[in-house]
Amino acid sequence: MNELLRLSLIITHTSVPSLRVDPLYRCAALLLPLNGLALLPFFQTQAELDIIDQEQNVTSLAKEAPYSPSFVLDLPVNVDSRIKQVIDIAFLPGFNNPTLAVLYQSEFTTTGRLHEARDTVSLLTITLDVLTRTYPVISHTPSLPHDSQTLSPCHPSIGGVLVTTPNGILQVDQGGGIVGCASNHWFSRVSNVPNVAPPDQPNSEGFDMDNSFVEWIGTEPCLFLPNGSIRTVRIEREGRVVHFGPEVGRVARPERGSVCPVGERILFVGSLDGEAGLARVVRGTAEVQEEESDEEMEDEDDLYGDTTGQTQAKSGAALQPITGFVLADTLPAYGGINAMVFALAKNGDRYAPELIACTGAEYTGGFSLFQKDLPTRIKRKVPAIGGARGVWSIALRRSHAQDLDTVVVSTDLAPSPGISRIAKAAGNEVQILARTPGLTMAAGAFFQQTCVAQITTNSIRLLEPDGAERQLYLDAEGNKPRPKIKAAHVADPFIVVLREDDTFGLFVGDTTKGRVRRKDVSHFGENGTICSSASFFTDHTDLFHIRKPGDAVPTQPGGGSNRRRGGEPSSSKRRASRKSRGGPVAPTTLENIVDADHGTQWLVVLRKNGTFEIWTLPLIGLAFSTDQLQALPDILVDSGQTHTAPRPEGESDIEHVVVAPIGITRPKPHLIVITKSRTLAVYEPVTAPLPTESSNNPTPVRDQLVIQFVKVFSRVLPLDTHDTKRVAGRALVPFKSANMSGVFVTGDHPFWLLRTDTSPLRTHPHAAQYVNSFTPCSIFEKGEYLVHSDEGATIVEWLPDVDIGPEIPCRSYASDDGRVYTSVAYDVSTRHVLAASALRTTFAYYDEDANEIYTPDAAHPNPQIHCSALELITPDTWTTVDGYEFAQNEFINAVESIPLETLSTERGLKDYVVVGTTISRGEDLAVKGATYVFEVVEVVPEPGIKTRQYKLRLLCREDSKGAVTALCGINGYLVSSMGQKIFVRAFDLDEKLTGIAFMDVGVCVTSLRPLKNLLLVGDMLKSVWFVAFQEEPFKLVPLGKDRQQLSVTHANFFFGPQGQLSFAASDDLGVLRMYEYNPHHPDSDSGSRLICSSEFHTHVPHRDVLAISRKVDSASVPDAMDIQSLGVESSLITGLSDGSIASLMPLNESEFSRLQLLQGQLIRNVQHIAGLNPKAHRYVKNDFVSRSLSNGVLDGNLLAAFEELPVAKQVEMTQQIGAEREKILNDLLKLRSPW
């Protein structure tokens, strides 16, 4: 079986390794298993480097490295024999030699043995002399709490370390003295450490500090709790007192090592459970008022400027205590995935599959909704506008008013020779202002948005806002007409047209006369107007600067922005010299006066031979030229040579080129290229380095743009599948909406090219099959788009709150109080979502007569326990409309929508919501469980409510002797697990469950998946079982099982090519294994043993796995009989604990062979992160086989790197493996769709 795993929405995984660095960067220490400590000494002085250079037996690589060889310490052997298990390490500041504090267990104990061994943790302080390899002990502090967790070195002005425990915090000074403060009343029950103050509020239960850590902001420690709250810690040196301050903030739960103070004023907090934040530290109440009143402060200058300078300016005065945090910016994230289900979303009148994921943790919980296409909805259809061959929305100024009116120019082929329309909105209808025969090639606002410039096949027309003609300019040479115009672009005050003879013409508007005239193009030289495409772009970023030959510092082009830069007074105004345009000072006309909002304009030209050029405007001069674009290299650099007439021989592979801004708050210009071989490449301009004196590059002989283009995105596009007579060709349409700039690509398989301020470039498919024309349009409301697609001319809009940053568009809905959902199901008949919310409450246990059995100790707090509630949620507003609360000691393990037999429907089956729970009875008694059967019913709505109302109705509850951990349905019966047993039950008379079959399988069932009368069982210890269900007589028959001891969390059926069946199982470490049931295999013992065929390590636990069917690609199989023999294929959608979504897809033999060879080439020839081996990253250690089983699953992330390579490198790799580049790109294209 050959499969490919494709990971998307990859979010960076932040682990918590015990890696510490000395404050003075003298060495680094890595804590290893079995109490080992790896040390890496750093060179500090030039004398140490000179000693290395004089040694003869040292390699050249070792001489270049700024560190000496590392070595490993065995702490019990080399330091102290009392060390049994190291808990944490930390370097201490303020010492002449590297000094390490080691927190370790000197004796093992548990909570049940606290009366025998209670305070078993010790703190050891040692000096690391890496030259003599001696490690003297400075101090030893025994008898610390047995549940001590972390070390945090104190500020040098205080000294010592802070030790955190689940119930309090301790400060151990350099002399071994201990003071501390308890966070709750459990501290005195589990530890006898003296000098620990009780909680600040004796009557309160306090707070839990389990998995908390301390981070120092300047001289003040802050405690980060696992629920996301931040508390200050006060350390009084005179009175030797430690106590907790108030809660000063709340963030998404951070991981230790992800909190980074920037000076004493800025704090970055990373998280895997929600948004990472950049916060400003507020000190004192006066500073809080200053934050609220200072509305003119620029966050960018304050956050990213010289924050250290601000701190040094106030170094003479003592800083006030921290009183809060002001969130300045965030990195959007939704956290880890807990459960998933597919639903049917309604985007306006269109239905689309939607993946609902329960995400987040600890007050950041909620739902995240994923659709493979960018979620849009049709607001209205406007067939009167048409626009099958082009549509343009133009905003025009009203006379004597600041508001803008919107008119739409559209064009169609029929009736021949084409027709163009000018329309505007009249209330809720469309009013056609004028109709003219002929096709429109382009249209745009002109003369400061006072009129419309319309370019037809043979003329330029200036139109009034009401459609009346102001000027008609025929594109002719004297009385002789020029070839027809096939493309054009308008950028006030310039117009460029491209004719059928591949020559372009340049026109400019004259404000003094209010008319259009031809622009002199003699600067382009002889045959210099022959090209493949020509367009304009406007730079608003001040990035495009001109450097003259021999100049060391580039000059800013005229008309640059007047935005204030860091360190520049707000009243300053930067004025650029007109000499930076490459000519004399131009006269003051509309051609060269560009205000601050307009930016600087440039002309982009693509020659027939593939040469890419950028020309200055309004004084024409070549500023950038390269002939390397068609090879799609990683970096495009200006050749620096003068313009020469293009050679007629040679045809370029480039089809479309455009420079357009993409982004939200700070859009950046991007160079977008589409080749005839269906490759999309995007380049971002960056400032080019200044040439050095020793550089071998030729001296430039003309003005140059001080930029170079760096490739940031590359993707292969799908083949066109529709009739070209009915579907317009692919085109790049830059757009700017109310809050975003981007590019829309029309044609077959249309898509959006977007990016946010914190994400890379993304391509999100559009929901239509094809799009003929596109334009942002505010003819009715702002934020709309006018699209002519397979559904006709329509006004569409995005669904609200869409996050385009992830690889799959996402919408997130947080719960009211941030509660976390652990399970989710979808009721198809009512289109409602049922989710299990995880809550925390005080522990309680009742007998059958509802009498409370457990009575808490009055001297200690009541313990907390998990409980659950089942919520009925409407997907229209994502609000809870009904629910069912379970007992305080009962929580939900599984929620499933299962079809069960019933007499209430004609087909004999009906979907019910089945819930499996666990009933906790404390530490001394085994847990119990229960199975609930609910029905979603429609009720009579309240007066005045027109929408349908639904409620949950409990039909049946059945108690069990163990926890019900997994549920599924098989042939109309309910299959549930109870510990190591599986039960099959019938739902009799819609009121009770009757057992008909059972079987013992393992230790604890974690997963149940049905397929007709077959059942796949995953066990916490006994791996995977393959079982058959027989109805006459009723019984469960084991067919095969895996005999290894594996903790399987999910097991699913998987259909490969030709319907080949296999089983995919995920364990608790994130290892994916593929099994086959093959009775003819010699090692299968006639089928009783499942054969493991592949193993693949994802390194992240799988929270939920969904199986979906895939369309079989019949394009390569012309015979109808062969198509039927292909069978069914499936994919597995996996939600991971770090928020990633992975898909496992099947491959046929030829595709797998090609991609496997390509993967080997990529492993050897592509630079990898930190030089790590991706093959070893996916390797799974297995002592039961003689060879690795990792070759059966390919790494989709690694294969995706092939699309980012230059074309020449792609061709070279494919030739080495005996394949064609086109076939490889088609193979990768099939694997792109997530579902």
TrEMBL record:
Q: Where is the composition biased (Acidic residues)?
A: 288-304
Locate the compositionally biased regions of type Basic residues. Answer: 572-581
The record's listing under Pfam families reads: Beta-prop_RSE1_2nd, CPSF_A
Q: Region (Disordered): which ranges?
A: 285-312, 547-589
Q: Which domain of life is it from?
A: Eukaryota
Domain RSE1/DDB1/CPSF1 C-terminal: start-end pairs: 868-1203
Q: What is this protein called?
A: Cleavage and polyadenylation specificity factor subunit 1
Q: Which organism is it from?
A: Rhizoctonia solani AG-3 Rhs1AP
